[in-house]
Write a structure and sequence with these properties.
Length: 953
């Protein structure tokens, strides 16, 4: 950072909302003896300034005056580059050359003296214009071929062609060899050659005579003779700008790279090189007479101006803007005034002053760091960041997008008969077309600014369908309404009623792409219809609440008057529309604060369970202490059944694909053999190949039909698995397991909804995620954390191990067992083992195993062996235990008597026999402990609740 900053002398702004680059400015003496600044924008505006240096009464410079703007004209084409030279034949004055995308024009700057006090009138007159057959990139003006007192024009195009014009006449065109992208181009008059930088980061020099000899006079030419460079220098980095320095006897080339500053002689040898410790932006070079010093000005990305004498830094100053170009101009008697311009058109004339910056950094206050307070503050900040990332991750992007586009979604509650073809309307089925409903969804787009490339997509979960998924609007300038219809498209259970509307567009002003996402819900009547409640159900779920139960008519008011639904009903049955399905019955308890759902299909209860909880929370929204809970065992067996069905369909799909590929290969082989026999000049018997071809074709058709049926079954099982998994996760959120510190990690591992791909399925991805949790945050011991078992995403052979992993993860989260607890108990376990070494042998030998008499309740310590999700876990809450496993009793009694022996006979002498007995005892305890862990993963039966119930439903 420099102590000094540049001082303003003359400042103006070249228009508004215009763009510029380093080729849009030039300094020349167009008329008279004073230098003028010519500026051309990409928007087609040409401005010519003649800065003045006037002082006021205080001796300070006045700066910009309106008279300093000599000319402002708007051309019809963008101005890519501005340069000056003697470009009109028979004239020694300086003309103005403007490069447009498809033309190059030469203008005369004319000043007419005014007869009144209004002053002089300036204008530009077109001398001539050359139309280009290719898109232009840059232009170079100079005395090509050694001519004197006039300049020629060379235009470099985007496809690597050099077009030469001798003033009003087109001369020739030549393509550069091995061209990919255009680069900087400069002309060296002493050697009459052009220097450029290729896409391979090589500095190449071509003589004008060689270019002229191998050039073509046809502008439509696309090739020519092979061109050889005069010399090549390997630079090794991309180039930002290149300048030519003309000495009395030779020329030099100064090249500004991304990391280095190079200076090459006109014969291609390196003169000097400077390593830059910053990122440069632009460059300007000049010679100081009469000493002949080469001065180089470099502007950095931090708006610092570096002044070098070759490789020596002489001065640095802070600029007030971020320039894209820097040059020099003479203002009246002031020579060497710096001219800088930004990409938005801020034009400044300044000089290097010695006015220091008045900013003084405040002194640093060094205080002792409190590590405990810092740790608490860090934890608090992490909680804030985590909460913000979860809730408001899209708030900033959506707030900016909502200012440009307003979206209004209206989902109609009126159900209409479906007017679209669905897979439910099978010709062989008895499903009535009017029995399949559909609902109307209206999306209103309100643009607050012109938008382009608007894409609206309606994403509905299967088995729902939408009349038109995607809508495209090329230009959105007024309020537009999009209407679609959502209906049941496939047979299967629905996990939830939510659907997404994704809107993407591009802003017309800046071309910034944005994406908006809205979530809405379809009405429940679109999915289910009412029917009498069934008192029997294979699967039952009970939801406990903290408020008295309410009538189901208040929770489901849209079904009042349909079937048996009345205003005082405390039971209702639901049946999925459009096909055969199981009845889901909902009951509200009359004497307690509980609700029960039961059905013969576990996945079918997912939608009604989530709707019941959502409507209860909405009904008791004003009650702050309202909660819903689920205290029964987690239904793992039902999830495992859905996993097995889905996995079996996936395996059958792979088998059918292989079978179809084999039969297709066989069909092609038979075709080739038949073709060979048909092409044979001598007729030969086809040896029943036609019969074999026909049979193979029939087998291919049968395999294709079987594969289509399998894909339908796969979609149905995928939907059932999604519903079962969604219901399981919902019940876990209502259970005490939700307070576990790693509960969110488990929910993330059990991804829902279920998605399959050709390479990997849901089972493989979820198995890897669950295994990772069991080895890290849910590990029981440190040894499990250090175990490095390779994880594979290949197709499973079976789901046995996968189901055990899920059961173990849910069991550890439900019971609150994780690695932290194990690490804390390691010390106590080691002390217990040390006590077991001092056990009295007589106490061990006198142990006896007795049975538990009937009516005696089991100790609560044995709760750890109950399998999660089993009916046994429910029954033991309401009925006493009748017996106990002999192995578990042995382990319990051994542990009790061992502790007694330790307390009573601590002075018993250890012998070799006691050590062997102790090893057997420890192995027995470890074996029984493994038995408990294996028992925890036993698949539970289907029924969740005991039949004995005191509630009145």
């Amino acid at each position: 950072m420099s102590l000094f900053k540049v001082r303003d002398l003359w400042v103006t702004n070249c228009g508004s909302d215009e763009s510029y680059d380093h080729k849009c400015i030039s300094v020349a003496k167009l008329s008279g003896s004073s230098e003028k600044i010519i500026v051309g924008s990409h928007n087609g505006f040409l401005r010519i300034y003649e800065p003045s240096y006037k002082k006021n009464e205080d001796g300070r410079a006045i700066g910009y005056r309106p008279n300093d703007l000599l000319l402002e004209v708007h051309l019809q084409q963008p101005i890519l580059q501005v340069c000056c030279g003697k470009l009109v034949s028979g004239s020694q004055s300086i003309q103005l050359c403007l490069l447009h995308p498809r033309s190059v024009a030469v203008y005369n700057f004319v000043t007419k003296s005014g007869a009144t006090e209004h002053g002089n009138q300036n204008q530009i007159l077109l001398a001539y214009e050359h139309q280009l057959r290719r898109s232009a990139f840059s232009v170079v003006v100079g005395p090509f071929g050694g001519v004197s007192h006039r300049d020629f024009i060379c235009v470099q195009t985007l496809d690597g062609a050099l077009c030469f014009f001798e003033q009003e006449t087109f001369t020739f065109i030549r393509f550069l060899p091995s061209f990919l992208l255009p680069g900087p181009l400069v002309f060296l008059p002493h050697t009459d050659s052009f220097v450029t930088v290729s896409s391979s980061w090589h500095v190449e020099c071509y003589r004008y005579q060689v270019l002229a000899e191998s050039g073509s006079s046809d502008q439509e030419a696309s090739s020519g003779r092979k061109l050889t460079a005069d010399w090549i220098y390997v630079l090794g980095e991309s180039v930002l700008d290149i300048k030519g320095i003309v000495w009395p006897s030779h020329s030099d080339v100064v090249i500004l790279g991304e990391k280095n500053l190079f200076c090459l002689r006109d014969n291609g040898t390196l003169k000097f090189m400077k390593r830059l410790e910053y990122k440069p932006h632009c460059l300007h070079c000049y010679i100081v007479e009469p000493d002949g010093k080469l001065m180089i000005l470099v502007v950095t990305d931090t708006d610092m101006l570096m002044v070098y004498e070759q490789t020596t830094l002489k001065w640095s100053a802070k600029l007030l803007i971020s320039p894209v170009v820097v040059t020099r101009v003479s203002i009246e008697n002031l020579h060497g005034v710096l001219v800088v311009m930004s990409d938005s058109g801020e034009l400044q004339c300044c000089y290097l002053g010695t006015e220091p910056s008045l900013f003084m950094p405040p002194p640093l206050e060094v205080t002792a760091l409190d590590y405990e307070e810092s740790r608490k503050e860090l934890l608090q900040l992490q909680k804030i960041i985590k909460a913000y990332s979860k809730e408001n991750s899209m708030s900033l992007a959506n707030s900016a997008a909502e200012k440009e586009l307003g979206l209004s979604v209206n989902v109609s509650n009126q159900i209409e008969p479906c007017a679209y073809s669905t897979q439910l309307l099978d010709p062989l089925s008895d499903v009535d077309k009017d029995a399949i409903p559909m609902c109307r969804v209206a999306l209103e787009l309100v643009p607050h600014a012109p938008l382009s490339k608007v894409q609206v997509s309606f994403i509905v979960p299967p088995p729902l369908g939408v009349s038109q998924v995607s809508h495209s609007i090329s230009s959105l300038c007024e309020v537009t309404q999009i209407i679609v219809f959502i209906y049941l498209n496939e047979p299967g259970d629905v996990a939830n009623l939510k659907f997404r509307i994704v809107t993407s567009y591009v802003t017309s002003t800046r071309g910034v792409p944005r994406v908006l996402q809205n979530v809405a819900q379809v009405p429940l009547k679109l999915i289910v219809t009412t029917c009498p409640a069934s008192k029997e159900g294979e699967h039952k779920i009970t939801i406990n609440t903290s408020q008295p139960s309410v009538s189901l008519a208040q929770l489901f008011p849209e079904f009042i008057g349909e079937g048996t639904m009345s205003g005082a009903s405390n039971s209702i049955g639901f049946l999925r529309c459009g096909g055969e399905s199981c009845i889901v019955s909902v009951f509200a308890a009359k004497t307690s604060q509980r609700y029960r759902l039961q059905s013969d299909s576990f996945p079918a209860m997912c939608l009604l369970t989530s709707q019941l909880i959502e409507r209860l929370q909405k009904h008791f929204a004003k009650s702050k202490d309202f909660t819903c809970s689920f205290s029964s065992a987690i239904p793992l067996q039902e999830l495992f059944v859905a996993i097995d069905c889905h996995f079996q369909c996936r395996r059958d799909s792979f088998i059918m694909q292989d079978q179809l590929n084999q039969r297709a290969t066989q069909y092609r082989v038979i075709q080739r053999r038949l073709l060979v026999k048909f092409k044979d000049k001598t007729p030969a018997p086809i040896t029943n190949l036609d019969v074999l071809l026909k049979n193979t074709y029939q087998m291919i058709r049968a395999s294709s039909e079987a594969f289509e049926e399998n894909q339908q079954d796969l979609a149905r099982t995928r939907s059932q698995l999604s519903c079962a998994l969604e219901l399981l996760l919902l019940l876990m959120r209502l259970s005490p397991a939700a307070s576990h510190p790693h509960f969110d990690d488990l929910l993330a591992a059990l991804s829902c909804p279920v998605n399959d791909s050709e390479e990997q399925g849901w089972e493989e991805v979820t198995n890897v995620a669950i295994s990772y949790l069991l080895r890290t945050c849910l590990a029981k011991t440190v040894k499990e954390q250090q175990r490095s078992t390779p994880l594979s995403l290949g197709l499973m052979k079976d789901t046995t191990r996968f189901k055990k992993h899920i059961a173990a993860a849910i069991d550890r989260v439900t019971r609150g067992t994780h690695s932290v607890d194990k690490v804390q108990t390691n010390h106590s376990e080691s002390s217990n083992k040390q006590q077991l070494v001092n056990i009295n042998i007589s106490a061990i030998s006198s142990m006896a195993i007795t049975t538990i008499p009937e009516g005696v309740e089991a100790a609560p310590e044995d709760d750890t062996i109950v399998p999660a999700g089993s009916q046994f876990a429910e029954n033991r809450k309401s009925a006493p235990m009748r017996g106990r496993s002999a192995n578990l009793l042995k382990a319990r009694k051994v542990k009790t008597e061992l502790n007694e022996g330790t307390n009573n006979d601590e002075s018993v002498e250890q012998t070799g026999e006691s050590e062997s007995v102790m090893e057997q005892t420890l192995s027995t305890l470890e074996r029984d402990k493994r038995f408990k862990e294996m028992a925890a993963t036993i698949e539970s039966p289907a029924e969740i609740f005991p039949e004995a119930d005191d509630d009145e439903w």
